[in-house]
Amino acid sequence: MDGLSDLSFFALLIKQGSLAGAAQELGVTPPAVSKRLAAIEARLRVRLLNRTTRRMSLTPEGETYLAEGERLVAELEALERKISGGSVVPQGLLRISATLGFGRKYVTPLLSRFAKQYPEVEVQLHLTDRPVNLVEQAFDLAIRFGEQPDARLTARKLADNRRFLCASPAYIAARGVPASPRDLHNHSCIVLRESDEIFGSWHFRSGTRQETVKVRGPLSSNDGETVLAWALDGHGIVLRSEWDVAPYLRSGRLRVLLTEWTTPPADIYVLFPTKSHLQAKTRAMVDFMLDAFADKRRTDRSSGNDTELLW
Fold first, then answer.
1. Cβ–Cβ under 8 Å, residues 267 and 159
2. Positions of E strands within 168-223
3. Distance CA 108, CA 142 (A)
């Protein structure tokens, strides 16, 4: 077994996440996979994986072997692409992570189109609202909200996505309209529990003025669709993304409050590990996503209090 073959095997093992998964993909038995892994570790004289009955994780040496190995494989692909005139066809396993609500509504139908266009790419979509480590968990791509501070990742903006403070006409008729962020203390606010650190803290800006308000209300949830449903039923004020509430703003089922104030945006990015040469399958997916969301980016348009809805 040559080194490049071992690298490809190890990358596949990490992407599958288990010996059984890799065995199924390769069409061999789990003991055969375990034996090959042991042979690679014996040849390199290091342990690449920490294995228990429930999970496996990369050792520091395993992380280096995976990262540098993927770079070498990508450089080989680039060389072959250069020699063959750029005719490398996107193929192989592509693992993607996305958030639950946005993933179901927008990413899922796009991947259906992608699969028809690139039949040689096997797409695995993992939906979760928990943070994922692309490198450690061996994802090729992630669709996430807000820029990521990880220098190991490249972020390309897919879409602009503002947050709006909204309430239903029924709630407004019963409780009135807040005149300033501080007035939210006197209102029922429906909170999305995304993390304990930011739970119930809403940030506002108007020119040079900034305010942070700790809001409260009788209802909260960790599910975006749930808090939106409660707002539509008139239970309180909600802070939600444009992609989620735009249809209800257009229909009048929700109204934007505090229009002279803005909240931090939640722009949508596609993230992938930073490499000198992207694999053909990853490049194809990134280009596909950028093209699919092209009309959701405010190129040469004003932002801020602009009331035009993109979604």
1. yes
2. 189-192, 201-206, 209-214, 220-221
3. 13
Each residue of 58-86: pLDDT tens digit? Answer: 998 988 888 888 778 777 776 766 665 55
Each residue's pLDDT tens digit, 92-146: 899 999 999 999 999 999 999 999 999 999 999 999 988 888 877 888 999 999 8
Q: Where do the domains of the chain lie, and which CATH numbers do they carry?
A: 3-83 (1.10.10.10), 92-161+267-296 (3.40.190.10), 163-256 (3.40.190.290)
What are the tokens at 120? 């040689």
Residue 142, pLDDT score = 94
Q: Which residues contact 262 (CB under 8 A, 6 or more apart)?
A: 162, 204, 205, 206, 304, 305
Number of other CB atoms surrounding residue 120 within 10 Å: 10
Residue 297 near residue 282, CB atoms below 8 Å: no
Q: Is 171 helix (H, G, I), strand (E, B) or coil?
A: helix
Sign of CA dihedral 149, 153, 157, 160: negative
| Minimum mean pLDDT range among 33-47, 149-163, 251-265, 282-296 | 149-163
The answer to whether residues 281 and 288 touch, using CB atoms and an 8 Å cutoff, is no
Q: What are phi and psi of 269, to 5 degrees?
A: -125, 150
Q: What are phi and psi of 223, to 5 degrees?
A: -115, 125
